[in-house]
Write a structure and sequence with these properties.
single chain, 5-stranded mixed beta sheet, 5 helices
Length: 178
């Protein structure tokens, strides 16, 4: 084994020191190598603030959600209102809860989030994206499950801009022969 590479135990000590020095440290991704030097494993470290919460930002269309999760009874608060009131449609509430359902954590975390921009559908997608990222920060072991479900990928689809000489983005005005 090369002297430059650190053993997994050394890396655990380093990451533990990093978490101890900074309560709100950024996610520390450390490469650990095995004896064969073939496989490189990334070790993700818990990212929790002084109040015991994990924070993440989720985005979808024009909506941006700031999400904090902490262990609790499963209460979700969006912009100071309960989830049932803010997202009245059941499909939107289902979208928000998908991250918890995939990793079997329904009712185990309280969520507080603020959402700005876009419509309700985009806001629900942004909250789901934020919850998924915050869950991976709180429990790094869940990252593989959540990533496999596709919830960590930011959905980049946005509304296409209107072009000049067109009625909308691509729609043309009615053609007149004479």
């Amino acid at each position: 084994m090369v002297d430059d590479k650190k053993t997994l135990e050394d890396l655990k000590d380093v990451t533990a020191d990093a978490v101890a020095t900074k309560a709100t440290a950024k996610t520390v991704a450390v490469e650990a190598s095995t004896d064969d030097d073939q496989y490189d494993a990334i070790v993700y470290v818990k990212k929790i603030d002084a109040q015991g919460r994990s924070y993440a930002t989720g985005k979808r269309k024009d909506a941006v959600a700031r999400v904090w999760i902490k262990p609790g009874k499963g209460q979700i608060t969006v912009n100071g209102r309960k989830e049932v009131i803010y997202f009245a449609r059941p499909t939107l509430r289902m979208v928000i809860g998908q991250a918890f359902e995939v990793c079997n954590r329904v009712g185990q975390y309280d969520v507080i989030c603020t959402v700005k921009g876009g419509g309700l559908s985009g806001q629900a997608g942004a909250v789901r994206h934020g919850i998924s990222k915050a869950l991976t920060y709180f429990e790094p072991d869940l990252r593989a499950v959540i990533k496999a479900a596709g919830f960590l990928t930011r959905d980049a689809r946005v509304v296409e801009r209107k072009k000049y000489g067109k009625a909308k983005a691509r729609k043309s005005f009615q053609f007149s022969k004479r």
